[in-house]
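dumping these here so i dont lose them again. two proteins, back to back, each one seq then structure tokens. dont judge the mess
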Amino acid sequence: MSDALHRLAALLPPDHLLTRPEHLAAYESDALTAFRTTPLAVAIPETTDEVVALVRFCHKEGLPFVARGSGTSLSGGSLPVADGIVIALNRLTRILRLDPAQRIAVVQPGVVNAQVSLAAAPHKLHFAPDPSSALICTIGGNVAFNSGGAHCLKYGMTANHVLGIKAVLGTGEVVEWGGPSREHIGPDWCGLFNGSEGLFGIALEITLQLLPRAECFYTVLAGYRTLEQAGDAVSAVIAGGLLPGAIEIMDALALEAAVAAVHADYPPGCEAVLIVELEGPREAVAVDRVRLDEIIRASGPVEMRPARDGEERLAIWKGRKSAFSAVGRISPDFIVQDGVVPRRRLGEALRHIGKFAAESGVRCANVFHAGDGNLHPLIVYDGRQEGALKRAEALAGRILKMCIEMGGSITGEHGVGVEKLDYLPVMFNAEEMDCMARLRAAFDPLTICNPGKKFRRAEERK
């Protein structure tokens, strides 16, 4: 071990700095397994003071670092750098405060998303952002990538539910922004930090807004002959004046995977299924469900299945929530893309994706948050076949360029990471890219915080 790593180890409890190859292997990639890098070491702090000490050491030594939670990033956002360390936050798992009167929770970055709602449940409260990986992903990662989930149409993204942040910046400075109230004067530093992909520093404590749990749910599953029909049904639901808690679509290949993985009971022979869920006060849901049923029937589904009880509702969502992991049943490798298109062009976008996939000879399963036009094409390939990854990445690139051309975005909630480095400059011009780089440098002048994400490392140092 080098002298620098020996000094680094002295900042931590015994055996909390991993340097052996067999230990580092577990950290060399995140959920985007097509990219792998072995770090110099992995530091495992147990307190926020240790995190601060680690960042200050890295700043003094000019040592790059990557903060990591559960490693569920699908864009390579927590991919290590070869000449740096990983700071693993999995032991910072305390819910420091839960105040049902103020409807807030103050948590450490390693707290798992679903644990917040579990802790708040006795008070009839919950944390609204619900990524598919909610049972394992951490709040620190949710903040870094401004995660959403199936219910983001009604409730918004993580940024909409973060009231305060205590963080250590790349300079080693500890800052506190926001607090337990939404009433603040001055710049929205919390909003800026959300979605920064770890380029500014590491969140140490996050103050979350909690919301009352919905009194009533009404969930409808509808099967369609084509993806375009399902996309048009989404537009009809929104145009009808309804604001569902969630609107999701899965195509035939995604359905095949979900059935294989969790035995989901979806209408057979459909090219797509649409899941629409209303939630809120019982009286309001009773009125809205009548209108929703009318709109769905008028959209021409092959079959329409309202959930009769809570058990059927959970069964419908189980298939949808398992979709990403379920694709592993039908393919050894896959890329989960994350583009956004205007909702009114959803049907058109789906038609183009089908055309692109057919032309490239690469299969693509579509799963997405249809309510806000956030596409999640799952591009399947076998990495053991020569050129397979390159073809899959080429298809992913065509989809991202389509999103930009339609007036959308290259990412809805997965971030840029390393996967979309070539496409941020397509979406933004040179002046905008320079502005973002200068903003990053204001928080991390040495560019040691998660270098090589969003910007290539050469671009960061211009």
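---- next one ----
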Amino acid sequence: MMTALLLPVLLGAGGISIDLTKMMMTKNRLQDASDSAALAAASALANDGMSIDDAKKLALEFLRTQMQNGGASSDEDPESPSQDGKKDEASGYTASQVNIDETSTVGTGKSWVINVSASYEMPLNPLTRLLVKDKTTINASTTAESATESKSALSMFLVLDRSGSMSFKTDEIASRTVACKNWTESNWGQDIKATKPCYVRKIAALKSAVANLTTQLNTADPENELVRTAAVSYNDQMQTETQLAWGTTGASTYVDALPTEPTGGTDSHAAFAKALDKLVPADSSKETEIPAHKDKNGQVPTKYIVFMTDGANTAYNGKSSDANGNRSDTETKASCDKARAAKVEVYTVAFMAPDRGQALLKYCATTEANYFEADDMTQLVAAFKAIGEKATAVVARLTH
């Protein structure tokens, strides 16, 4: 009699122990599926420009697919409902809801909070059913965030080398059919003939790299509400700079107009100092950037200098000598110290530059991560792209 009374309890207890293990596995699978669905929606909103309704559909479909692949199918529970309360023969789970809250951020930027909750009605084995109900409901929820935004309003000054060595060829072929003068350090200044193939000159590579940077800035700020840019170039003397202006048109036009066959030595001190003075004037009453951004977008801008050279300083105010080159280095470094103190973020790019030129740019970079070495055109374009990516960031993360 005792055996008859206890047997259902013992069998039920055995069934419960089996189902507890299964419940834990199903809970983990459902949580993983919810996390993946939320992140998929977050990424689609930020990176693909997907609408909120489409992102919700994506999350629900992602959840169904993940659960189906994980083994939770209608074969286990043909009666389980779907997100609208009806039978879901594909997945055997209930997606309670996907909620997405959208908030406007800086300029045209937006941020989203994605909440996904899901449940799965797991059928219990016959032994467990001796003591309890036929099914148990397992729940999971997760939250993800994503955003599209400029890091901040920004003012950026390009300080670019246009000395004679920028006429030298790179290893990139421009044309195999059209001949050109392929200048190198060994034949510079000689009366050489045009030859084939025609190689891309350093100055042309620089123009392509700057175009890549400005394209990213324009994409992040299509209404010209957040970004102000300007440019200045130098050989053994500083050329006239552009004025800081909204968008990138002025700076782009300036760079495109740089000579296709630059000449002259190298002296960076005046150009860097000019860029710094335009961003952070010694006379605070002449400050332009903070008031301009305050009026336009209500922010205090992040200020950047992008400093590029392919050589080492050889002159000072048009006069070439080793001593003058060293003097230019010293004064350029002094301006870099001032930029660091003024919280101006400096990126530096050494394009096929000698050791002394690299040393100067390493000194001037705000951090080690702000310094780039480029040995060819591809690396130069990549360096300017990386700078653009740091100024225009997209974030998607799981928060809970």
